[in-house]
Amino acid sequence: MINSALSNLFRAHRLIGLSALLSGVIFLGIPHTGLPQSVRAREDIARILAVEKINVADGMVSGEVYNRSANTVRDVQLFVRYTWLWDNETKPGKDDPGTSTYYTLPKEIPPGGSLPFTYKPSPPPPKMAGGHFETTVSVAGFTEVIPQTR
Asked: Cα(98)–Cα(78) distance, rounded to whole angstroms?
């Protein structure tokens, strides 16, 4: 009886050890396909991407994003900001209708290439008396596709 209990105990320990070893082999065998993300300064972003030819009409924003880098970029996220400026900033009104949003470009941009964009907010910014909107567009994020070297 003691012999069979010890035998079962050894089998359980071997099974646990084998499971742990197999899990480690599987984990180490998975290739690491991505590199860590990095946060870049605005100056670094400006060397890679430029937003130009910005046009604003009735809240709709259009322009072009230029890829100045030697690599393809994708998942370019634009930060569109509608800042409300009061006609009399020393006595602003009660409600500030300013707003902001992120817009992700639908395609990749090849090295040296550009991609036009159009963003139409829904609903559009309200038309109000007592001030006006100042609309700005900047790059909020992107993924730079760096070719793998072997």
From this structure: 17
